[in-house]
């Protein structure tokens, strides 16, 4: 047991840190650190820089661009990216569609899609949830009817994150509605979002931000060559993907950065003749989150270590990281809002002349926005069901 | 001891609720929020018409002479409907200064118009860096000629943009956080040197920054005794705190009802999600939070009328602690149990979440009142 | 709405307070306030004093000894008793068996049992739970077979509180095992514990105290005249009784007294140059419990007020009082233990010469003992099920 | 970075567990607890035999030279079996003073015997009113002849009754709570003027009151530098704190396993109670607490060997906070989910509850370590 970085790992960390310092544009970093919206170009621009460097998909096989890093190196890389305020690498292509293609795709599909995912040529999004389905994924209704060498897709997806940026969408669709088990008769399709018949409609969330969408499919023709794995085997693909989807949701490095931010804000906030950071009431809440996060980082590393040894895709362990990681994220955004005191109230300037503090206002927005963290990617209730069944055998 | 609402209180409640059910449904509210003013003059007139603006004021000015429990009836209804009009700012804050500390002339000049819906008010007090310290006032009032000149900046003034008359706290004496030396002034919204910029609050209530730059007022603009403003402010803010506690009870009731309804109607895995025991137990905890919130708000409404300042501070802080905790618990759970839909603009529950979040922060968060409660005896 | 006591209520409070001051023996009060065990004689002795005064069963009908007090008077009375450190009136006779007899008993049964319950001639206990049944009361197995004008009872009860003091026990027994619905075929019997074939065996709890027991019935002959309500209708009786059982479990006045005690202990405990009561960490925990209790007192009174208006037996509302009331009791005992710091550790003197602080040691015992509060009288999980079903309609 | 136990650590773990599985089952433990001594010399001899007493000590004295992670392996196993022998007192406290601050002569005289199971030790430090303040020492040591005379009273001395040798803190200089002026002394249990009275702890571990009345010791009884005892005490107590954190991980693991087993086997309403979703979700939270407790204890065990005092204080407090919270959460939930049975002497879960409760309080409760953590940087 040795939790210290080896000299090689330290050197690697320094290399990553230096490269990020030299490569991350100032304006992008500022947007990230101040919770401002990132455009499609912001996201893809950073993606392409990483791709050029060869670091955009560390865990892919080397022949497709993977880096062959150890678990620890990957952890160091993510930590450095989050700490420095890099934009996220949008997960839907690199972390979700690609592992599926690598596992289930035909050689042609790999050849066609993986390099474009790697290079950031396409913005991928996810078409999983449907209205009324929510966490009950298998109840999906979007139909895909085979018509010659095409599928004709009709239906609706919901909660499609960044769907308005999407070039391509991977979807679960029902190709056979006659099967008794709802998990059967589902297929996994890749769909070009420029196809006629696709409409994207924004869903405005309570922070008034636009990040999720409804996506409507009206007789959309999709080449049968875009079917991944066999027809009717979509549930196998979906299950494989779920672990990967949840993999990043713990966001421990991000929480570490934000925890520093809370402390900075609290240290600047005067209360009762001292600062909020000196107030035991506030301070203890920070401490408990900090301690929980220290533990979760080790839990995460322990699990990664086990995965590495077992050489298997992530299972129920990631549910635990998702649960506790999102609880921590929410606790941090809540404390951030609390630092604002009465200034948590103003949210959007009405008068153009207002001396409006957009940063402070963004804190309340973040608090509201992060309520999604325990809902999306399988609600924390679903994660508890998964652990109860898969880990505890209940 | 008696826990029933009086016949009058029931009538008041029904009148308001009947109006809000039709005149203030979710769509109507959305239009009001999106309007340039951010509130509706028609609704305001209707509230005046129903006598809702008159509840706490004396009959000599056309008021109803109601108790704080009467106000609880009103606030609960407004909270359930998420009314964004400046009721608290006018009736619970601005008007209170006049009613409690104003001269007869001030009362005669202002209260009848307020009750009739002609005059809206606001309380311009909070300053940058003050957080919840009511004694933190750096705005200065200097004696000038027959009156005073005011200079300073006030922040997060609830409905400051809608007000015709502002009650402004300013220092006539003492250092920035001294208890003595704070004086209250009545300043018309259109006074020269006064600028107001508005923001929309998280909860769609409007808040304003008020800058005073050489604003001159006469001696007759002083409310109460010169330099003795703080106890008055504390009394009014405690009163307003209890009112938002009552408002929170209404909002929590809505969150409870909507979530329960959602659990009964929303189906997953072939059954209503309300059949899942884990969610049932959490729904029970929401119910308990609601009942406990109602109890503490009731207690505070009754006790605040008792006239005992020490007891008042203790009970108001107790209420605010419990309400802040309940507001947080219920709002977070309601959104969680609604899932993604609870996150959207489209459902009233997300708006209820926002209002409850702000009420929890308003007039001192739980931490502030925990400290005040601990110091109370 | 008026939460103040009327002049009449104030006068009543003073009368109760004065009488208790004059009537409660010092040594009994000390035992109660210092968490020492009360003997059967301690309990019955106080019961008899109250009976002599006419105050032992306020809510019974006046013809049987009830006081015709208002809800508020009853509340005042209980508050004064708890505050002063009176022993509890053991509930099984006055609060449980008696309401059942009043509702379902024959005139002969009433005449035979009620005066003795009132006068404290018999110590009553409850035979409900069985091994393996727990909260699932209806799965009970103790058999009662009719044999002439007797029932012959065989089986086992568990968790019988103060069973070792018991003169009489009321039991749910199965008189018909052939019924498909488990709630049917159950009967309610009154059994003299001096009957041959009854064995009481102590269960030692983790605080090492003896308060609960197993009670074994081995061919115990019970006169059929001791059947309450009809044979096979025991479940109706049990349900009626459940509300009464939970009625007292909130114990708000007791918690108020104990909260004062916590504050006193905390104010005496030095920490970091001040007292534990001044430490915001500890103080805020006290405050939150205090506030919760202030609210629960009003909730309790509101519910009592509703009951009075509706003139019906307690229903699901008391489940809420039980849940929150027991949570508060547990929080208080936990804080009390925490005031002891390192001295929470020593529990029983080994050497007779030890300068052993029994009071401080009793704090940890109380913490352990009170874990039962969320388990007994229907676990808090069962209470939540009840509310979900009865109040929320889920 | 590497998270695996070494081959040696696995072997150590297996050896201890194999012994405890047979030699320290629930009935065997009950007999030991009920015995006059409250611990078993046979078990102690077996622990010595297996080398368990030697783990942290240097090979020059016959020790294993192990890291704190090696000790974690031991403590976890002892925690799972609820071992009541004075292992922590001897190996984690008393012996540590000798190993860290003792002279070569002291080490040579004591450690081999300790490792062989011939000498038990204890640390007599806590005093009435000290709570968790390590600098609070009123016991006095006055220079007398060629040595010192000790007078004072020590409380809650872990296994003070079983010890052959006591490490006693006493003040040679300074006021009651001064950081400087505390000196450590080695005092034989049978020294004249020393009286020990024993109590059984809530968790069946023995604790003692130690009274020193004119106890004389020689100069060679001083451990470390005169008046410089506090930093040594802090180091050893932090070490012992980490050890009980590791012990708690074992106890929490037992509570987790036993509760899970109970949920699977206990039937109500015709089904195993583990099919109830509300209980499933709570069982998941127990699992998460367990994994998080294991992580923080692991981190603390690794970091405490790093030699950085500031970092050590921070991590030890972090670990104790999380362990105290997890111990409380898991012990309370485990009893609750076991229902009435969980309350009884008859089930090991109630004994686990008691030990976890005491560990949460030991060497500073969560509040104490929250304050220390906040002050740590």
Task: Describe what this molecule looks like in 3D.
The complex is a heterotetramer, with two copies of chain A (394 residues) and two copies of chain B (377 residues). Chain A is globular and about 75 Å long. Chain A folds into three domains: 7-89, no CATH class; 124-233, Beta Barrel (Butyryl-CoA Dehydrogenase, subunit A, domain 2); 248-391, Butyryl-CoA Dehydrogenase, subunit A, domain 3 (Up-down Bundle). In chain A, the strands form three sheets. In chain A, strands 1-4-5-8 form a four-stranded mixed beta sheet. Chain A is of the alpha+beta class and 394 residues long. Chain A is built from twelve helices and eleven strands. In chain A, a hairpin with a 5-residue loop joins strand 6 and strand 7 (210-223). Chain A has helices at 7-23, 26-33, 40-53, 71-84, 91-104, 107-119, 234-247, 252-268, 280-310, 317-339, 358-370, 380-391; strands at 124-127, 143-147, 150-157, 168-174, 186-192, 198-204, 210-223, 227-228, 270-271, 274-275, 346-349. In chain A, helix 4 packs parallel to helix 8, helix 9 (280-310) packs antiparallel against helix 10 (317-339) and helix 10 runs antiparallel to helix 11 (358-370). Chain B is α+β, with helices and mostly antiparallel strands and 377 residues long. Chain B folds into three domains: 7-119, Orthogonal Bundle (Butyryl-Coa Dehydrogenase, subunit A, domain 1); 122-226, Beta Barrel (Butyryl-CoA Dehydrogenase, subunit A, domain 2); 231-375, Butyryl-CoA Dehydrogenase, subunit A, domain 3, CATH 1.20.140. Helix content of chain B is 51%, strand content 16%. In chain B, the strands form three sheets. Chain B has a four-stranded mixed beta sheet, covered by helices on one side. In chain B, strands 2-3-7-6 form a four-stranded antiparallel beta sheet, with no helix packed on it. The radius of gyration of chain B is 21 Å and the shape is globular. The two termini of chain B are 26 Å apart. The interface between A and B is large, with 53 and 50 residues.
């Amino acid at each position: 047991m040795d939790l210290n970085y080896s000299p090689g790992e330290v050197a690697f960390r320094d290399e990553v840190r230096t490269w990020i310092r030299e490569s991350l544009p100032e304006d992008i970093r500022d947007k990230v650190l101040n919770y401002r919206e990132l455009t499609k170009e912001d996201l893809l621009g950073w993606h392409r820089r990483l791709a050029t460097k060869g670091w955009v998909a560390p865990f892919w096989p080397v022949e497709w661009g993977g880096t062959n890093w150890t678990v620890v190196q990957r952890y160091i890389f993510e930590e450095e990216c989050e700490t420095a305020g890099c934009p996220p690498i949008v997960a839907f292509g690199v972390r979700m569609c690609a592992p599926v293609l690598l596992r289930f795709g035909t050689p042609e599909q790999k050849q066609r899609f993986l390099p474009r995912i790697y290079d950031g040529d396409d913005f991928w999004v996810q078409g999983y949830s449907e209205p009324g389905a929510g966490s009950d994924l298998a109840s999906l209704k979007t139909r895909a009817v085979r018509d010659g060498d095409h599928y004709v897709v009709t239906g609706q997806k919901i909660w499609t994150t960044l769907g308005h940026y999407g070039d391509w969408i991977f979807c679960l669709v029902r190709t056979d509605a006659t099967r008794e088990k709802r998990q059967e008769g589902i297929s996994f399709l890749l769909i070009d979002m420029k196809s006629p018949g696709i409409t994207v409609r924004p869903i405005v969330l309570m922070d008034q931000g636009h990040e999720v969408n409804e996506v409507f499919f009206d007789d959309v023709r999709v080449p049968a060559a875009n079917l991944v794995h066999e027809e009717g085997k979509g549930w196998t693909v979906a299950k494989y993907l779920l672990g990967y989807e949840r993999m990043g949701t713990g966001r421990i490095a991000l929480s570490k950065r934000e925890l520093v931010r809370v402390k900075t804000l609290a240290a600047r906030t005067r209360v009762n003749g001292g600062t909020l950071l000196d107030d035991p009431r506030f301070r203890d809440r920070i401490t408990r989150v900090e301690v929980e996060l220290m533990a979760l980082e080790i839990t995460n590393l322990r699990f990664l270590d086990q995965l590495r040894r077992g050489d298997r895709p992530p299972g129920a362990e990631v549910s635990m990281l998702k649960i506790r990681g999102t609880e921590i994220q929410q606790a941090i955004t809540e404390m951030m809002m609390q630092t604002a005191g009465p200034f948590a109230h103003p949210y959007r300037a009405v008068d153009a002349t207002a001396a409006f503090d957009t940063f402070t206002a963004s804190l309340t927005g973040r608090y509201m926005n992060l309520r999604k963290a325990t809902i999306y990617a399988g609600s924390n209730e679903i994660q508890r069901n998964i652990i109860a069944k898969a880990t505890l055998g209940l | 001891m008696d826990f029933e609402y009086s016949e009058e209180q029931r009538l008041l409640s029904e009148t308001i609720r009947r109006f809000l059910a039709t005149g203030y449904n979710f769509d109507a509210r959305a239009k009001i929020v999106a309007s340039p003013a951010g509130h509706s003059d028609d609704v305001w007139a209707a509230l005046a018409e129903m006598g809702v603006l008159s509840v706490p004021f004396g009959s000599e000015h056309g008021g109803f002479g109601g108790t704080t429990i009467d106000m609880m009836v009103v606030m609960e209804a407004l909270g359930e409907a998420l009314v964004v009009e400046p009721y608290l700012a006018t009736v619970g804050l601005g008007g209170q200064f006049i009613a409690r500390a104003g001269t007869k002339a001030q009362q005669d000049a202002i209260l009848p118009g307020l009750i009739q819906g002609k005059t809206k008010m606001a309380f311009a007090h909070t300053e940058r860096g003050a957080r919840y310290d009511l004694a933190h006032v750096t705005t200065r009032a200097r004696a000038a000629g027959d009156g005073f000149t005011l200079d300073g900046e006030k922040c997060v003034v609830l409905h400051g943009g809608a007000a015709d008359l502002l009650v402004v706290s300013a220092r006539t004496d003492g250092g920035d956080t001294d208890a003595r030396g704070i004086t209250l002034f009545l300043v018309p919204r259109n006074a020269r040197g006064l600028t107001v910029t508005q923001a929309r609050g998280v909860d769609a209530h409007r808040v304003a920054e008020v800058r005073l730059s050489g604003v001159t007022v006469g001696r007759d603009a002083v409310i109460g005794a010169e330099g003795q403003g703080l106890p008055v402010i504390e009394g009014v803010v405690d009163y307003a705190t209890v009112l938002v506690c009552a408002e929170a009870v209404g909002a929590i009731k809505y969150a409870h009802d909507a979530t329960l309804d959602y659990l009964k109607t929303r189906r997953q895995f072939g059954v209503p999600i309300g059949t899942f025991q884990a969610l049932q137990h959490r729904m029970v905890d929401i119910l308990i939070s609601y009942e406990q919130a109602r109890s503490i708000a009731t207690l505070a409404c009754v006790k605040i009328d008792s006239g005992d300042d020490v007891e008042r501070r203790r009970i108001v802080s107790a209420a605010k602690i419990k309400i802040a905790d309940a507001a947080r618990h219920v709002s977070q759970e309601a959104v969680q149990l609604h899932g993604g839909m609870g996150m959207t603009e489209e459902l009233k529950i997300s708006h209820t979440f926002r209002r409850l979040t702000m009420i929890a922060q308003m007039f001192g968060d739980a931490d502030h009142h925990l400290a005040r409660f601990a110091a109370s005896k």
